[in-house]
TrEMBL record:
The lineage of its organism: Bacteria, Bacillati, Bacillota, Bacilli, Bacillales. NCBIfam families: PRK13625.1. PANTHER family: BIS(5'-NUCLEOSYL)-TETRAPHOSPHATASE PRPE [ASYMMETRICAL], METALLOPHOSPHOESTERASE. InterPro entries: Ap4A_hydrolase (IPR050126), Calcineurin-like_PHP (IPR004843), Metallo-depent_PP-like (IPR029052), MPP_PrpE-like (IPR041780), Ser/Thr-sp_prot-phosphatase (IPR006186). This is Bis(5'-nucleosyl)-tetraphosphatase PrpE. Residues 4-197 form the Calcineurin-like phosphoesterase domain.
């Protein structure tokens, strides 16, 4: 039986990530964390931005994925950072400035090396994962049944940004539909992207983004146990960044 630990949006919270590994029973071995029972951590995107140590998160996750001891799928912040690293014109918004400042503070050689590491990680990553004989799918912002097995622009937009309507809220962020409320599939969908005050289980979906970078928790979902390990955030609590659904 394969066992997985899905880890939600880290956003540069390296301290909370290492604390999470220790709390969940992992041990440091060289540049990676390993669980004595061979559990596989699965990072569900948004490794960087807003938090204090995005470059360390990149290095740790990339080292573990490279050695085949962890899995990773990208989030919207990863996609944008990748485009920035390619030299494309991207707006430095949404907390991306912190990651760029970190890179600029390094020597040019080390900055280049971390950028290459991240670009390699991103380029190798699938848009979403199907695990445990296809009984689970993991995607950063979720995935509807109809897109599983599909690829292309609509799928990419959904897994990175969620079920967006194209409209913007007053603060400039996209309006997101609550796709999980209408999900009727049998597969368990593990996702993040929308910070919630506690893990939200609904209709065979689980949102594990508990807003670590906004003063919530870093949450890992243990599968198949369906239990959680959580580490409180060291960041200031910003309640307006959380979405409070009526069912939680
Ligand atoms: Mn996201």
């Amino acid at each position: 039986m394969e066992t997985f630990d899905f880890i939600g949006d880290v956003h540069g919270c390296y301290q909370e990530l290492t604390a999470w590994f220790h709390k969940a029973g992992y041990k440091k071995n060289g540049d990676k964390y390993e669980h004595p029972d061979g559990r596989t951590p699965v990072f569900i995107g948004d490794l960087t931005d807003r938090g204090p140590d995005s470059t360390s998160v990149i290095e740790l996750v990339a080292a573990m994925v490279e050695k085949g001891t962890a899995l990773y799928i990208p989030g919207n912040h990863c996609d944008k950072l990748y485009r920035y690293m390619l030299g494309r014109p991207v707006q430095i918004t949404g907390g991306m400035d912190t990651t760029i400042e970190e890179l600029k503070a390094l020597s040019p050689e080390l900055s280049k090396s971390i950028q290459n590491t991240f670009m390699h990680l991103f380029e190798k990553a699938p848009l979403y994962l199907r695990l445990d004989q296809d009984s689970i799918a993991a995607a950063h912002a979720g995935i509807p049944e109809k897109y599983i097995g599909q690829s292309g622009k609509s799928v990419k937009t959904f897994v990175l940004y969620g079920d967006i309507t194209g409209e913007k809220k007053e603060d400039g962020t996209p309006v997101r539909r609550d796709w999980a409320a209408h999900y009727t599939g049998k597969r368990l969908i593990v996702y993040g992207h929308t910070p919630v005050p506690k893990p939200r289980q609904l209709n065979h979906t689980v949102n594990i983004d508990t807003g670590c970078v906004f003063g919530g928790h870093l949450t890992g979902l243990h599968y198949p146990e369906m239990t959680y390990t959580q580490v409180p955030s060291s960041m200031p609590y910003i309640p307006e960044k959380f979405r409070f659904f009526p069912d939680i």
